[in-house]
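Hi V.,

Quick status before I head out on leave. The structure for the redesign project is tokenized and pasted below; the design run finished overnight.
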């Protein structure tokens, strides 16, 4: 890369954790990145604000957030402005990769040094790999930003080589024939209307805070099979939809994300571990490389890429990692793939904004978050969506970690207002070992069409609400005050909770329920809810009779659980309806 002739520099004049002030004499661009030179290290930052220097009318002062640890920095250190916004390198090789929050390859860094140190740099994409490029345009063709000029195979996918989105209309002057090339080699030359030549390569840089445009944005409609019954039945998400997933610490947010990575029917998974998750992030990096994709039998990483903030990066880097991951998701959506992006957790991203806002002296909003935090959260989720022209989609599922499990705090409330689906996790369900701990009665909603009708969904929720009310009555005044018909309803709801909403994520069959199986389960649930079950009381008093009813339901629940684990073939799956009918009529299973 040729060094710029007019290098624009400044000097550090103030350091406040990850927020610094720099005095400059040249022009500076709002939002551009800069490199702070600290003890032979180059630390990346971003310009947030530009203002005049009251001590020197010929100079200006910029405020910058720095994405790397500033230990060792001192007043007077040189700052070099790059003229480029915070960007991500897009091209073949994104899949199977694991990066830090600035797209430095963690695998590459681990080979360089066993410890992650501030200022360490690594290529975002492997520059040595040769990709089999096949051109799809010829000299004389007219192209513009986002057009396809060729393709390369990337694992099981066809990776389209695109014209950088910022380019205007150009004419292809030359393009190579089918050939193996790396991402640093020129594959085509395009000439714009000002007769300026542009060298096109397999990869290009894209500003992360400039959304990649849709060709034809459409309303998300088709539901995603996540394999998780409580989601697919009661709180579905569509391709291109958005979901907030709040829950207290230890309620199972990370485990649920791991399950979605394995079983959600999407082409590509992008994970942003933007919360500096310590041991949990290490587990992701280590285990995902060893997991098998149930759909293909190959490594799960073949359709994944992961961004993880490391302990060597300050909280400011959380914002960068979220937007970098979003841009990668948009890139694959533009290529026509269904992408799910998982962000863990947006609360920590919001906390980074709170710290930055406080250091800048902004007027604080509720709980010291920035006043515009709802708008910033909405702007982030609005980048998800489906594209009718490309056939691709980007589904954004963001976890939220409210302190103390308080869903009334600003980030959770703003997420509820910004997303089409909401999966509220319950500490009580997690403590009771009810997995997944999504509470269907605690803010769990969805505006998307699902695999069952809306009326069926509402009937299940109504049954669960009545069951919860009866359970509270039993806890408060005892079982004696509950009529028999209400007790039978309570047992029905308990059966739905135990046999349908809870799943064993470690069992090959039970861990995932696809739509065909889900249809059989829903038919059984609706039959159970609608049917009147008559038990013979005989000479039993009410207490003994209720115990008798419970024992009958316990046996039925065990039979249903056995079906969950063992029904694989079509004939076995169809037997669930027969089991329910036999129980309703109080017959023995045939």
């Amino acid at each position: 890369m040729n060094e710029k002739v007019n290098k624009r520099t400044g000097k550090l004049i103030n350091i406040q954790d990850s927020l610094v002030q720099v005095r400059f004499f040249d022009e500076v661009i709002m939002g551009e990145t800069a490199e702070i030179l600290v003890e032979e290290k180059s630390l990346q930052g971003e310009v947030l604000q530009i203002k005049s220097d009251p001590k020197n009318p010929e100079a200006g002062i910029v405020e910058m957030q720095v994405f790397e640890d500033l230990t060792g920095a001192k007043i007077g250190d040189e700052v070099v402005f790059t003229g480029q916004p915070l960007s991500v390198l897009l091209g073949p090789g994104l899949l199977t990769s694991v990066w830090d929050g600035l797209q430095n390859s963690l695998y590459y860094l681990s080979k360089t040094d066993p410890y992650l140190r501030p200022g360490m740099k690594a290529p975002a994409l492997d520059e040595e790999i040769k990709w089999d490029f096949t051109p799809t345009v010829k000299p004389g063709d007219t192209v513009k930003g986002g057009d396809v000029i060729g393709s390369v195979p990337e694992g099981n996918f066809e990776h389209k080589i695109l014209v950088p989105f910022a380019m205007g209309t150009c004419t292809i002057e030359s393009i190579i024939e089918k050939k193996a090339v790396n991402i640093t080699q020129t594959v085509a030359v395009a000439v714009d209307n000002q007769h300026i030549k542009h060298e096109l390569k397999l990869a290009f840089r894209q500003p992360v805070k400039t959304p990649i445009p849709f060709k034809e944005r459409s309303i998300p409609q088709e539901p995603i099979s996540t394999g998780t019954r409580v989601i697919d039945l009661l709180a579905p998400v569509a391709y291109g939809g958005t979901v907030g997933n709040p829950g207290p610490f230890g309620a199972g947010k990370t485990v649920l994300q791991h399950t979605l990575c394995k079983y959600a029917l999407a082409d590509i998974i992008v994970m942003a571990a933007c919360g500096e998750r310590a041991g949990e992030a290490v587990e992701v990096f280590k285990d995902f490389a060893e997991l098998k994709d149930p759909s293909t039998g190959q490594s799960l990483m073949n359709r994944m890429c992961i961004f993880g903030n490391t302990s060597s990066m300050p909280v400011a880097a959380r914002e960068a990692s979220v937007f970098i991951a979003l841009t990668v998701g948009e890139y694959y959506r533009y290529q026509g793939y269904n992408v799910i992006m998982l962000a863990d957790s947006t609360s920590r991203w919001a906390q980074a904004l709170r710290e930055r806002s406080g250091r800048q002296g902004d007027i604080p909003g509720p709980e010291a978050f920035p006043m515009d935090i709802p708008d910033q959260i909405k702007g982030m989720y609005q980048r998800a969506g489906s594209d009718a022209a490309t056939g691709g989609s980007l589904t954004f599922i963001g976890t939220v970690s409210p302190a103390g499990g308080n869903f009334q705090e600003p980030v959770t409330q703003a997420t509820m207002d910004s997303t089409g689906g909401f999966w509220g996790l319950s500490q009580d369900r997690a403590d009771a070992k009810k997995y997944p701990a999504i509470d269907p009665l605690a803010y769990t909603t969805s505006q998307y069409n699902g695999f069952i009708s809306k009326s069926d969904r509402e009937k299940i929720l109504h049954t669960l609400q009545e069951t919860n009310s009866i359970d509270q009555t039993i806890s408060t005044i005892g079982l004696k005050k509950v009529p028999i018909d209400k007790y039978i309803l309570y047992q029905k709801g308990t059966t739905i909770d135990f046999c349908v909403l809870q799943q064993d994520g470690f069992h090959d069959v039970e861990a995932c329920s696809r739509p065909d199986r889900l249809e059989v389960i829903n038919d059984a649930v609706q039959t159970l809810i609608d049917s009147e079950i008559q038990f013979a009381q005989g000479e039993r008093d009410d207490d003994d009779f209720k115990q008798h009813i419970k024992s009958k339901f316990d046996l039925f629940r065990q039979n249903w659980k056995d079906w969950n684990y063992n029904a694989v073939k079509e004939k076995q799956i169809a037997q669930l309806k027969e089991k329910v009918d036999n129980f309703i009529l109080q017959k023995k299973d045939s």
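Above is the designed sequence. The chain has four domains: 8-84, 126-202, 217-449, 455-584.

G. will cover questions while I'm gone.

Best,
W.
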